[in-house]
TrEMBL record:
<keyword id="KW-0808">Transferase</keyword>
<dbReference type="Pfam" id="PF03109">
    <property type="entry name" value="ABC1"/>
</dbReference>
<dbReference type="InterPro" id="IPR050154">
    <property type="entry name" value="UbiB_kinase"/>
</dbReference>
<protein>
    <submittedName>
        <fullName>Protein kinase domain-containing protein</fullName>
    </submittedName>
</protein>
<comment type="similarity">
    <text>Belongs to the protein kinase superfamily. ADCK protein kinase family.</text>
</comment>
<feature type="domain" description="ABC1 atypical kinase-like">
    <location>
        <begin position="145"/>
        <end position="188"/>
    </location>
</feature>
<keyword id="KW-0418">Kinase</keyword>
<dbReference type="GO" id="GO:0016301">
    <property type="term" value="F:kinase activity"/>
</dbReference>
<dbReference type="InterPro" id="IPR004147">
    <property type="entry name" value="ABC1_dom"/>
</dbReference>
Amino acid sequence: VGFVSSNAPISSTADKGSTEWFYSELGQKNWVEAMELNTLSPEMPQLLVEMGMNYDPDKLSKVLADSWPQVYARAITVSTSLGAFVAGLAQDAALGQLERRAPQRAAQLRKLLASLGPSFVKIGQALSSRPDLLPKTYLEALSDLQDRLPPFPTEIARAVIEEELGRPLPDMFISFTNQPVAAASLGQ
């Protein structure tokens, strides 16, 4: 799940991980929940339809009780991923390489946040506009989270548009391409 070790070479591992996470069951659930979809088109995987979109505290309690291993696994993934990043920063500081390695660590943080999912992307976006908290190198790297994200599945895009506009796409558009023109999350 997009884990980037502090000792691993800084590469495209997290890019692959972010795409894998997004297309995973958990990634799809998180995306649909984040978009607050109330209805889904028949093309959507049955799993997403079965999720339900209305807040129900009893259902939430049952789901959490039934899925505690996944909740703990996610907590461990997030903790170890962020912990490894912080350990890498500490190692850089101890070796006097904090400034020299800043561009690589900034890129690593961007990839890591993208790999951890939508909530962490939002955190990265917020941090990208905080020069009082982060050096310029990090601000520039995290700004990529504003408009350079992997696109999400066309089925979800269709469901969101139909939900927002209240009508099926063929009733509104002559054609609708399956190839995204752009992918970003600030304008949601």
